[in-house]
TrEMBL record, chain A:
It comes from the Bacteria. It holds the Pfam family SSF. This is Cation acetate symporter. Keywords: Cell membrane, Membrane, Symport, Transmembrane, Transmembrane helix, Transport. The lineage of its organism: Bacteria, Bacillati, Actinomycetota, Actinomycetes, Propionibacteriales.
TrEMBL record, chain B:
It comes from the Bacteria. The keyword Transmembrane does not apply. Keywords: Kinase, Transferase. Residues 267-372 form the Histidine kinase/HSP90-like ATPase domain. The keyword Transferase applies. This is Histidine kinase. SUPFAM superfamilies: ATPase domain of HSP90 chaperone/DNA topoisomerase II/histidine kinase. One of its GO terms (molecular function) is kinase activity. InterPro entries: Bact_2-comp_sensor_kinase, HATPase_C_sf, HATPase_dom, Sig_transdc_His_kin_internal. It comes from Nocardioides cremeus.
Length: 512, 377
């Protein structure tokens, strides 16, 4: 393939998406306002709109690129990733969405403060939000590097650098700041960019006489092992699978950029409806990457063998469909991947920068204090630069694995806090703090050791690679035990707060 | 001069006496926040540790006029005697010393119990006794009586401040009630007049306006709840503007642009409407051509920003400063009231920002956090 000619569609798509994003960021505020008179009631964000926005922000590079690559390399057991990422919203829907909205909290630290009346827990939560945000931003930057390297050529670090800068400029200039319309558009863009090429490629595959997977080195284990729903065989495989399920099912509720979007819902009922629609939208989206994975086994088996499976979605159109058609489809998927990357990392960077500006950069130092905007900008720089730098270090850990770690930390900290905080009156500040520390330290250390591998092998490595199965129960246990021990220090307003969390708004009741 | 200790040197913390003073003041400052909530079981439990440290005796207790609120220190079996001691002390006046025979120990505790005497000081708020501070120790020296007396007086001072806080809150509530009742008679009269003028020519419009008027008054006279959502508040503003437009017609032009994301933010009841009323008044005062009101709500992450702007006559900034400082003699009472309530709820970072100059119109900016403890619609 001529590299110069091959890069053209990718570059065009990249430039288009970047320019569109920055332009919407700059002019979007004007775009989202009406200047005529209007009825306020007709302007509240509808669940369907909000659900598209949440999905747009949620579907990241890992969903767009990682899932197909993992399927290609490891087989059907990797379907647990998309299943878990979707099912996380089921847990959110049934147990968290409405009470969280009724609590009036904007961020997770807000919820902790409202429920437990403790500044210490609030700070611990802020710390965790930043940690999880960084851990989740890291694979976004890695993914962006891969996308650019594959689409345009050039070293991977260049990609991380370029897109890091785009996100930073975008966030600092105030662009994309939770404009619902823009985020909703992102979802439909991503779906189109993935669905249309998949449909075309399926037609091509049918035209080729529906070939099965080649028997080569990639298929060494045979079809049977590829389609097994368990990772590896034996007890480690079982453990890895269950741990992944725990992390993804319970981790979604702790993602900082998802939680803030729920605040836009007018009430708890709307929050539930929104979550339901999100389930549908994300479910539809996740039907597509497996198609790429399966087609990849037929047409691009060598990608898995050479360890470049993350670029499968980007390269498959051209491998299957040489010529102009392939180029157009490539442009489409590159644009979609880039949009996935930009929307998720902008949302995350804003969430992290918000917390940093509130609890770190906005605090007085040596008698001086940064103003709101300056504090937010310094926070944004911190939020973007740290993970971008880490992503430059050469790492063999795949995009989806890193995302899995972010989910594991989230599941071991915010999941117990939210579930116990919403459904159990007995939770105390001391208990929450101890549980957050246990779950956070456990899963966080595991994540660090996995990102910089070579520390352990055998069962220890397995336990560190997927910590959720032990760190989530540990965190729950510590939280409950310490809360029981400090029973007399339960916050005084807890009954009133519970009534507010759990009574539907339609019920006439003095919630003060 | 050069021999004076440099105050910014961290190593120099003053003489031993100075340091003892600092320690005492610091301990007292730790107890203060809890006591500023008034004398309750919770505040007593949170402050008693620090008061105990301040006095350094084996045990102390806080009671209200009848019951034990909190006990800290050794000899806990004496806690049961606290209510009786309190009642007895309140029957007389001033600090009382209780001797050992009135403090019988429970069986089996006599040997180790350090409580042999008690000093009981009343806690008073504006000459009304609200409770007692009881200090227990091996013997009641003159020094202990003095210390107990002083600490009791300091606690009383904090409780008086708590009363002050409460009355300030009550004042705010009264002001909101006043605002509710303050729908100006002119507005009622003029609105009804405008509606009446449509009854013949455009009965449908008259009916609609009458319903708007009913909804507007219902919202403004609402009894319960200190907070509402921005959507509710803006809806009321919208009704108000509709009624004013019915009266002024084309002379009053309005631009509303509201980011849908901030509609669910909880805000203090009637925090925008007075600003809009102000803007309408000033905007129309200005020129023959009428005025233009702009209301903007922007989403800024953790905060939402609301701007109310008119292109009217403007105002002397010094005048506005006096209004915001609480000068009741000036006519923009609504502005000062909103400012005061915002500061009371969200802290001094969230007061009104007014940009104005004579002839340049007025812009009032409100920044509200999306979440603040205790604020929910």
């Amino acid at each position: 393939m001529n590299p110069d000619l091959g890069a053209a569609p990718g570059i065009v798509a990249l430039v288009l998406v970047s320019v569109a994003t920055l332009a919407i960021g700059t002019y979007g505020l004007r775009f989202s306002r009406t200047t005529s008179d209007f009825m306020v009631a007709s302007r509240t964000v509808r669940p369907r709109m909000n659900a598209s926005a949440i999905s747009g922000e949620y579907l990241s590079a890992a969903s767009f690129l990682g899932v197909a690559g993992l399927l290609l390399t490891f087989g059907a057991d990797m379907l647990w990733y998309p299943v878990g990422w979707t099912a996380g919203y089921l847990v959110l829907l049934t147990l968290v969405a409405a009470p969280l909205r009724r609590s009036g909290a904007y961020t997770l630290p807000d919820f902790a403060e409202a429920r437990l009346d403790s500044q210490a827990v609030r700070r611990a939560c802020s710390l965790l939000v930043v940690g999880i945000g960084w851990l989740y931003l890291l694979p976004q930057f890695q993914g962006a590097g891969i996308t650019l390297a594959s689409a345009v050529g050039g070293p991977t670090w260049l990609g991380s650098l370029v897109v890091g800068s785009v996100v930073l400029i975008n966030v600092i200039s105030g662009g994309m700041r939770s404009i619902t319309l823009v985020q909703a558009f992102q979802y439909w863009l991503k779906l189109t960019a993935l669905l249309v090429p998949a449909a075309v490629l399926l037609v091509v595959w049918a035209g080729d006489g529906r070939p099965g997977p080649a028997t080569g080195p990639a298929a060494a284990g045979g079809s049977l092992s590829w389609s097994s729903p368990l990772a590896e065989s034996g007890p480690t495989g079982l453990y890895l699978t269950y741990s992944l399920i725990v992390a993804t099912f319970l981790g979604t509720m702790g993602l900082p950029h998802v939680v803030v979007r729920f605040y836009t819902n007018p009430d708890g009922r709307a929050a539930r409806r929104t979550t339901l629609v999100v389930l549908v939208l994300i479910g539809i989206f996740y039907m597509v990457p497996p198609v790429y994975g399966a087609l990849g086994r037929v047409y691009a088996a060598e990608l898995a063998a050479s360890g470049r499976s993350d670029v499968l979605v980007l390269e498959l159109p051209r491998l299957m469909l040489p010529g102009l058609g392939g180029d157009v489809l490539t442009g489409l998927v590159v644009g979609g991947a880039f949009a996935a990357f930009l929307s998720t990392s902008s949302g995350l960077a804003i969430a992290v920068a918000g917390v940093l500006s509130q609890d770190v950069t906005g605090r007085p130092y040596a008698g001086r204090r940064l103003g709101g905007v300056a504090a937010f900008r310094v926070g944004a720089v911190l939020a973007v630069v740290v993970p971008a730098l880490v992503s430059l270090s050469p790492s063999q850990v795949g995009v989806a694995t890193t995302v899995g770690l972010a989910f594991a930390v989230s599941a071991s900290t915010f999941c117990p806090l939210l579930l116990l905080g919403i459904w159990w009156r007995g939770l105390t500040a001391a208990g929450a703090l101890a549980g957050l520390a246990a779950g956070g330290l456990g899963s966080g250390l595991a994540a660090l050791l996995t990102l910089f591998p070579g520390w352990a092998d055998g069962w220890l490595e397995v336990l560190l690679r997927r910590p959720a199965a032990w760190s989530v129960p540990l965190s729950f246990l510590v939280m409950v035990a310490v809360s029981r021990l400090t029973r007399d220090r339960a916050p005084l307003h807890v009954r009133r707060f519970m009534v507010r969390l759990h009574t539907p708004e339609a019920l006439d009741l003095d919630r003060g | 001069m050069a021999r004076l200790p440099r105050p910014w040197r961290r190593t120099h913390l003053g003489s031993d006496a100075d340091r003892a003073t600092f320690r005492t003041l610091h301990t007292a400052s730790l107890a203060a926040p809890a006591l500023r909530a008034g004398l309750t079981r919770e505040s007593a439990e949170r402050s008693i540790k620090h008061l105990h440290a301040l006095l350094g005796t084996p045990a102390i207790a806080l009671s209200d006029t009848a019951d034990l609120l909190a006990w800290d220190g050794a000899g806990h079996h004496h806690a049961a005697q606290v209510p009786a001691l309190a009642t007895e002390a309140l029957a007389r006046s001033g600090t009382q010393v209780v001797a050992r025979r009135e403090l019988p120990c429970t069986e089996g505790q006599q040997g180790s119990c350090p409580v042999r005497a008690a000093v009981i000081s009343p806690l008073a708020v504006e000459d009304r006794v609200v409770g007692t501070l009881q200090v227990f120790g091996p013997y009641a020296s003159a020094g202990l009586v003095r210390a107990a007396d002083e600490v009791a007086r300091w606690v009383s001072g904090q409780l008086e401040l708590a009363e002050l806080d409460t009355s300030r809150t009550r004042l705010m509530e009264a002001e909101v009630r006043a605002l509710r009742a303050q729908i100006s008679p002119h507005f009622v009269y003029n609105s009804l007049g405008a509606i009446a003028s449509f009854v013949r020519t455009d009965p449908d419009r008259a009916r609609e306006l009458l319903l708007e008027f009913a909804d507007f008054t219902r919202y403004s006279f609402r009894r319960h709840g200190e907070f509402t959502t921005l959507a509710e508040e803006l809806r009321s503003v919208e009704r108000y503007l509709l009624l004013e437009q019915a009266r002024f017609g084309d002379r009053l032009r309005v631009t509303l642009s509201v980011a849908p994301e901030v509609l669910s933010v909880a805000v203090p009841f009637l925090c925008i409407q007075p600003l809009v009323e102000n803007a309408v008044r000033h905007g129309l005062e200005s020129a023959e051509g009428g005025g233009h009101i702009r209301i903007v709500a922007i989403d800024q992450g953790q905060e939402c920003v609301i701007e109310v702007e008119d292109d009217g006559a403007g105002e002397d900034p010094e005048h506005i400063r006096r209004v915001l400082a609480g000068d009741q003699s000036l006519d923009s009472v609504g502005l000062g009231n909103v400012d005061g309530r915002l500061r009371a709820v969200y802290g001094d970072d969230h007061g009104l920002v007014v940009e104005t100059a004579p002839g340049a119109g007025t812009k009032v900016v409100v920044r509200l956090p999306k979440f603040a403890p205790g604020v929910h619609a």
